[in-house]
Amino acid sequence: MLTFRPCHLLRHTCLSRPLNLRFPPSSSHFLPSKPSFFRPPPLFLSSLNPYSNMSSRPSAFDALMSNARRLAAKKNSSSSSPTKKRKSLDSSPSKTQSPNSTKTQDSTEVKPDQESDINGIEKPIEDSPKPNVDETQKPPDSKKMKVVSVSERNAELKGKIGSLKKKPADFDPKMVACWEKGERVPFLFLSLAFDLISNETGRIVITDIVCNMLRTVIDTTPDDLVAAVYLAANKVAPAHEGLELGIGDASIIKALAEACGRTESQVKSQYKDKGDLGLVAQASRSSQSMMRKPDPLTVVKVFDTFRLIAKESGKDSQEKKKNRIKALLVAATDCEPQYLIRLLQTKLRIGFSEQTLLAALGQAAVHNEQHSKPPPNIQSPLEEAAKIVKQVFSILPVYDKVVPALLTGGIWNLSKTCSFTLGIPVGPMLAKPTKGVAEIVNKFQDIDFICEYKYDGERAQIHYMENGIVEIYSRNAERNTGKFPDVVAAISRFKKSSVKSFVLDCELVAYDRVQKKILPFQILSTRARKNVVVSDIKVDVCIFAFDILYLNGQPLLQEQLKVRKERLYDSFEEEAGFYQFATALTSNELEEIQAFLDSAVSLSCEGLIIKTLDRDATYEPSKRSLNWLKLKKDYMESIGDTLDLVPIAAFHGRGKRTGFYGAFLLACYDDRNEEFQSICKIE
Questions:
Q1: Tag placement on the chain: N or C end, fewer CB within 10 Å?
Q2: In the predicted model, is pLDDT for residue 3 greater than 60?
């Protein structure tokens, strides 16, 4: 604190005692812009009276001197005390030093952050929280932390992925998950699971791996389950939406070349050697280093990008698709490029079908079930759950609806929460082949059955909504409405006035209305597939209806065939050459059935379909049932033709057939010209 004393006029004389003046460490002491205390005030220079500026107040120079002495004293006292240890090295207090003495020492220590103004007056220090760690222990850069954490997580994931092979009863999702709950599932997890599956051949083991993979997603990030299931099914949307990636190998090769800094010729050459564009992508990315790695891929990121690729259309759409693919490949690591390419090609080829995926989804739901308990009469919940999911998906083949219903309502309520929906195609019921009429009679003893012509056309499912909208779907649930505009325009005139909505199961057959006869399937296949204009149609078709699945808001799948047939005949009227009911025979006489078969073959039909009428005769979507049998001339030894053919060429296999011949070109020998004539290619 400053003491007040009389102020004397400063003259150009030596001071009586030395001063320990400590000037600010600056290189500008003797520059023209000197500190204020070196500049005499104008009043001092202009005044001729030496006592005119005398004052009783302390001068700035006195304040400077006093402050300098105080700072020097503090420095001497701090230098004489023992050096304080770093807190980071030894945080325990000294035994000889009390807390009070420590606090006193800290209060007298000069703080480096404390400042004084140019006249020596100390400035107050703003209160600010000090870090808990030493400056030498600053956390690393956030980007570096991210790269390290991702690489460590990937390494951990690769080490744990083998746990997916455990039996579901012994598996815990925490064994594999290397990401936090609610965090997006890394695409590497899905890729490593695919890689694990590709090395297995047993159906049970593969189902266990897929089940545990889905359980891990459900346990950590259930919101990602829809995307994971779609990718595992190698789809981007339900089949009836008609959304396809539409990418050829040429576009993928261009994107791969640009992403990896290679030429297209190099990629093509390696593709020829490896036979798998996915393996080429993996080898190319593993040999490339990057200055800055993009954010790691997630399952949702990949799926959303695939959807965007599928929706690209118009000008420069192929270029946009290529750029999106390139962005995915640049961010891909490890085995991700291999499965990105295979998914883009829609050739996953890892050894499991969609039916295996559905069964695994049902089993995963049982292990993660939190909403309901299985009915008491179920002996094997896992098998029953697999059946439920398959059955529901055959009626409502939309993962966007089935998976959320599974998560919210549980597996045992799935049949109630997901049901037949008009406008969404149902999987077609299929027939098992048989070799003769006698076999049919033996299998259907004491059972009423019906025989129908098996027409050689395209299986179709026609949905008619109450608002008059018509949709036509193929047996693979693909939307064929644009292929048959003539059917769309005509179907409403065949229904009776009481019919407001319906779903027909039928066959669309090429038909000559002048000669009133059925034409071969090869003629039907000449019709354009998309955006057909009615005026451009040269091949007419006739609708041959044989079943009805939905009528006036009521699903009929659980009704017996006899009931469905009655509803069909009562709801529509025939019009020759346009709409007809399938020709049928109800008899169990061997001779009558044989004659009916001969008649079908003579009218350019493939053969017969035999169906039970009122016992086990419900409609079973997507199932090849023993209750429906098909008898084709090709199956019968007495009618079928045989050919003696020899292979004359082979084609290199790709994918799983890499290193083997994937297909053969067959030919028959022409005795007249003494040469082989190529007939067909088989795979």
A1: N
A2: no
Q: Which DSSP letter does residue 656 get?
A: G
Domain boundary among 238, 264, 297: 238
Same domain, 300 and 272: yes
The confidence band for 610, taking pLDDT boundaries of 50, 70 and 90, is very high
304 and 437 part of one domain: no
655: left (phi over 0), alpha (psi -120 to 50) or beta: left
- Residue in the structure block whose two tokens are 């693919």: 325
CA distances in angstroms from 618 to 207, 423, 453, 571, listed in the order given: 29, 21, 20, 19
Hey, what amino acid is at 222? Answer: P
In a domain, 440, yes or no: yes
The number of domains in the chain is 6
Three-state DSSP class for 627?
A: strand
Domain end call among 238, 258, 292 = 238
Smallest CA-to-CA distance from 394 within 437, 428, 360 is with 428
In this predicted structure, the answer to whether residue 110 has a pLDDT above a threshold of 80 is no
Q: Are residues 375 and 319 in the same domain?
A: no
- Closest among 325, 250, 323, 332 to 285, alpha carbons compared: 332
Can you give the pTM of this predicted structure? 0.72
Do both 385 and 446 map to the same domain? Answer: no
Q: Which tens digits make up the pLDDT trace of 615-667?
A: 899 999 999 988 999 998 776 655 556 788 999 899 877 766 667 788 899 99
Cα–Cα distance, 186 to 179 (Å, whole number)? 8
Tell me: do 340 and 358 sit in the same domain: no
pLDDT tens, residue by residue, 144-177: 444 446 788 888 989 999 999 999 999 999 999 9
Same domain, 662 and 527: no
Residue 255 lies in a domain: yes
State percent of the chain over pLDDT 90.
49
Candidates 357, 383, 385, 358; CA nearest to 371 is 385
Find the helix or strand (DSSP H, E) in which 282 lies. helix 277-286
Of 632, 628, 630, give the one whose Cα is nearest residue 429: 628
Range of the domain at 328: 249-344
